[in-house]
Amino acid sequence: MPIEDDRIAAARQILASHTLFGSLTADELDRLLAHARVQTYGARQTIFAKGSSAPTLLAVLKGKVRISSTGRDGEQIVLNVIEEGDVFGEIALFDGKERTADASAIEACELLAIDRSDFVPFVRDNPEVAMRLLSVISERLRHTTGQVEDMVFHRYHHRAE
């Protein structure tokens, strides 16, 4: 469903506070939001599954979303809980490839959705956004690398003791 007037201000605020979109002008945000829509999900409803093709950025207008992954043994781990005002789904938006985790509504949700097919032309028209994308991706990679190192070195030190 198209975004309603009463949600535009909330959506603008969410995007303006996001690392990627924070330096966009009001006009740029409005141009991006012109392509947005609102999706609703009931509690415990699947938003997307790992491996699915859904190159869409999502922002939580209302509710909470669980990001999780299921191992080969069927054990599920929760990677993150996305709350009101948070954004997720950037990886698939950036590269257009399949989802890297599962997302499901913890409670009834309203999500702002921006598709890659609308986002890519916006980036082409605004090259400075591409530089911010690279910065955000680099920051996340550094964070993930640090987490992996901490986990590996923690195990190594415990085995050595």
Could you explain the architecture of this structure?
- The chain is an alpha+beta fold.
- The protein has helices at residues 5-17, 26-33, 90-95, 116-125, 127-160; strands at residues 37-41, 46-48, 56-62, 65-70, 76-82, 87-88, 102-105, 109-115.
- The protein has a single domain, classed as Jelly Rolls (Sandwich).
- The protein is built from five helices and eight strands.
- The N and C termini lie far apart (58 Å).
Keywords:
161 residues, alpha+beta, Jelly Rolls, four-stranded antiparallel sheet, 44% helix
Helix content: 40-55%
Rounded mean pLDDT score = 87
Distance between the termini: 58 Å
Low-confidence stretches: none
* Structural class by sheet pairing and helices: alpha+beta
Oligomer: single chain
Could you say what the CATH architecture is? Sandwich
User: How many distinct helices?
Assistant: 5
Number of strands: 8
Residue share in β-strands: 25-35%
Say what the CATH topology is: Jelly Rolls
Instruction: Quickly name the level 1 CATH class.
Output: Mainly Beta
List SSEs in N-to-C order: HHEEEEEEHEEHH
